[in-house]
Amino acid sequence: MAQAKRRVAYYYDAEIGNYHYGTSHPMKPHRVRMTHNLVVNYGLYKQVEVYRSKPASAQQMMRFHSDDYIDFLRIVTPDNVHDFVRQLQRFNVGEDCPVFDGLFEYCQIYTAGSIGGAARLNRKESDIVINWSGGLHHAKKSEASGFCYVNDCVLAILELLKKHQRVVYIDIDIHHGDGVEEAFYTTDRVMTVSFHKFGEYFPGTGDVKDSGHGAGTNHSVNFPLRDGMNDEAYRTCFRPVMAKVMEHFQPEAVLLQCGADSLSGDRLGCFNMSVKGHADCVEYMKGFNVPLLVLGGGGYTLRNVSRCWTYETSVLLGTPVPNELPVNDYYPYYGPDFTLCIPPSNMENLNTTEYLEGKKVQLFEQLRKVSPTSVQIQTGQPGTAQTPRDDEEMGDGGEEEGKEPDPDARETEAELDARVDATTELYDGEKDQDTGAQ
Length: 438
Ligand SMILES: [Zn+2]
Hints:
- The protein is an alpha/beta fold.
- It has helices at about 30-40, 60, 65-75, 85-90, 105-120, 150-160, 180-185, 230-250, 275-285, 300-315, 355-370, 415-425, and strands at about 10, 50-55, 130, 165-170, 190-195, 220-225, 255, 290-295, 425.
- It has one domain: Arginase, Chain A (3-Layer(aba) Sandwich).
- The protein has 12 helices and 9 strands.
């Protein structure tokens, strides 16, 4: 079947690489800049529309997060952090999720790309949207977790739900996508699917038995894995499970979180995936021709993160690139081989065929009970994210479109759409040709 060239939008804000969690902290936003630099030097940016979003507002974040948590993120700085001892504990900010200079702006930037990308898909202006700075899947409603402060995945899904009845969230980060699963655990409009290392590993959740609750029963899908997952084993799990998810749930939009800490040699990970094996998930989901939002996530061996996300950008564009890396600003990082694709190591795969087949049988049984004919969700369930909360106050007037928002009307679809159109996207002028000729 011949496939039309997909319209791909790519969100990037050059500021993102300037934020630092701390010298010894494994999370380095710089990896997104390294990725972008490779994308540019491979010439891939000529085939995408490159966008930079206006920073996400506190109000936008409060569609999922609690007001007091977001207010705290806005005001805390390394200089005043000692005045907030109680809040630091309450919001789990400190060690894994430190206070650093520009923390809130950082959250605004990575979140803006994900929400703005979802809005583009809603308006059918793109078929695929990429935001490598997003995918911070551990953040909770009122709590930072696992290097994540604001859960841009949840906020992007809420945006997609305005125009799409069912959204599937797929998570190939090595860690369980706990924040997203928790947010949508009781709704049947969002199916979350996470493939992750399970057993004595952060965040500790994601058992195959945890499959949703209430209306969301069977709509949380968890594939627990052991150390050493390789390309072949991953493919024999990911493809059949996702085929069943797409068949039974029939989502109208897909969010794919592409955490690169599942790659071989990751500083924090323990899988043995190559770049091509990781990208096979991207290739497979692209093939369903459903509006696709692709986000980053974890990934702590920087040179491999940028390799992976660059290669996945080429896959999404349908533009093969040579394995030999082009000259780029970070060329010495990529020695001694200076190639795009990394080979896996010889580490043992502790996931036996019997183990994986057993889990697949369990998940197929769960998915067999899922059908796309769902009832309209209930509103206002505490602790979940499936509908905008209607009990919040307006906060600080952070909207900048020049009119005073009415709290009662603020969450109507028309209002939000108008706001999105007015404020979230700025064409950054890096690209001015269409994508149809290739
Ligand atoms: Zn991770």
